[in-house]
Amino acid sequence: MGFQVLGQGSSCRTHQPCAACRMLRRKCESDCLLAPYFPGDQVEKFAGVHRVFGASNVIKMIQMVEETRREDAVKALVYEARARLKDPVYGSTGAIFHLQKMVQELKVQLESIRARVRESQTQRDELLGILRNVNHLDLVPPINDTVFDGDSFMLENDVLMAYDPVKFPAECDWFI
């Protein structure tokens, strides 16, 4: 009952009604404007669009759009209808606001992460500087028994740098 048989000579083909004609209980002609966009197995897709916009308004909107862009227009109508059914007040605008809020929150998180990365890089650079200084200490000759004999401290036969606390006491006002 839901099929229309179109006869052309000896060959017959079956035309299945689109979701719009099936839902509206109309005869689906071969030149039905809604058939390419609402196949017969997608009744719920048309039902949402019909509930929000009405079948005659959907037809008018599709006719207003050039034929090459009609598929995109129908996709937009279906998306808006689903969004409007979910959120009758805001529709797809509510989804846009929600996504904009998420973008703002992600920007804040990204900036926080960038700040932590910069802080980590600074700490890394400081540690590398310390390690380089420690490596430079390896270039200074090690202290051996000839330089430091326990009583005095000399650097490489430098007599003026010798320090003997008994022979050369430190003059300090805090030492009594």
TrEMBL record:
Domain of life: Eukaryota
Protein name per its UniProtKB record: LOB domain-containing protein
Family (UniProt): Belongs to the LOB domain-containing protein family.
Segments forming domain LOB: 16-117
InterPro entries: LOB
